[in-house]
Every structure is written in C-alpha cells, then in structure tokens.
Amino acid sequence: MVKSTGRQQPESLPVTNKYLNALEKNGYKLLGFYQQGSQITGNADEFSDYDFIAIWKNKIPKSDLRKKAAATLRLKTYDFRDIPKVQKSIDAFKYKSKVFNIGHILEKDFFSFHKQINESDYEYLEERLLRLSGFKAAKIILDPTNKLRQYQKTIRVNQKIVKAARRLIKDDLEYCLKKFQESTRRKGVELYAYYLYQIASNLRILLALGEKEFPISAKWYEAERSSELVKILARVEKSVNKEKTTKQILKIAARLGFKPSNKIHA
After folding, report:
1. pLDDT tier at 22 (50, 70, 90 boundaries)?
2. Average pLDDT, the chain
3. 17 and 124 share a domain?
4. Which site from 78, 97, 161, 208 is most exposed, i.e. has the minimal number of CB atoms within 10 Å?
5. Distance in Å from the first CA to the final CA of the chain
6. Whether residues 140 and 79 fall in one domain
7. 266 inside domain
8. CA distance 186 to 114
C-alpha cells in the first residue's frame, strides 16, 4: 500500500497515490514509484504534465484494469497501453485541468536499464536513454526497500553506453547527413526540415553522452543547453516566422477538414 511521506504534498501526489493504491488492491505488489520530468527539474510550462513511473514486483496490472481503476476514481481516461517491446506500460488521464502520465515497469526490467542500452536497437535507443535521464533526476516518492535510491546512485554514463549508442546511431546518422547535403541543393524545404530534425536528434544524444550526461528530450534541449548545435538551431528558428507559418498550415488543414486534436496520449 502506498503511504504518505507525512510532508505536505503537491496536488499531484494524492491523486497518484489513490490510483496506485487502487491497483494494489487488485493483488499487485508495488516496489516503489517516483516522479520525473519538468515538474521536478523546474522547467514546467503551461503545456507540462505530471510524469510518474511505478515499479511492480512480479507483474504489471493490465491496461483494462488500470483504465477501470482510473474511471472508478473519476479520473478522465485517455490512453492506456501495454508496450512489450520496451518493457513498459503507459497511462494518460486527467484530473481537473492537469494531465497525468503514469509509466509502469517490472522490477526485473527496471534494474537492467544499462544492459538494455547495450542490447538495444536504434528504434528504441533514445527512449531507453531518456528513461535513465529521467530516473537520474527523479524525485523518489515511495521506496520502502531503498532499492530505487541505491540504484539511482549508480546511474551514470559509462564507456559501454557511449560505444553502443555510437554503433547504433552511425548508419542512420550518416545516411541522413548524405540526404541532408542533397536537400540543400534541391528546391523545397520539406526534406531539408525532415533531415535536419533527424540529424539534430542524433547529435543531441551523442553530444550529451560525450559530456558523460544522459540526453534530455528535444523539447527542453534548446532551452537548457548552450552547445554549438543549440546555437545553430536558434539561428534557424530566427529565420522562420513560426506563428505565421503555423496559421497558414492550419488554414490548409482546415480546408481539408482537419484540425488540431484534443486527444491526449501518454
């Protein structure tokens, strides 16, 4: 059973406590949980959600049970999924005006994050690196066995992770660099923007690992870092009127019968 720490808690914690308690009452055993993301690092803005990770001992509650538990607590349910490929399940629900993202991971998978990087494929590399980044900066809420805190102290970028990331990124990055060069000599900006995004994402990972840090998500990278890459992206941003371009693109989509979605995904 999740217990209060006895300290004054922000509104997000009682909601998360009630939700995880409801799941435990169905026979599941919670090892611990923690909060990560911008609400912890101090970068939250008007679009930021509450992000929590729950670690389960033997099995993760199934998505239909999790959704039912959230609905019983009168939480507005959106996205409840089990994703075996990345050993993770995810939920998204809303309480009042705030969105909660809850990730669920088995104990045996959680404590093998470093090994998973070495055995990963390119498709899931960034997701797994961001897991480690999130946990390293996380606020641990429940940890009765002290396993999470002990593991958090060991989280660091080592040479095996750097080598694995470089190996996994190499083919995709070099292909994108070639296509990026070609796109500069062709008319149009769509392919140029696409390959710029792909390259920036890979370089963001490599630059962080080169400094013995885990990468942070793209949405915060340009706001927090001052690398040469950030300066280049800042110059690109200044050359584009984002508001004007967005309005024009939305008008085209609207004429075709499409508009920005109100759906929420974990």
Report:
1. very high
2. 90
3. yes
4. 97
5. 25
6. yes
7. no
8. 42
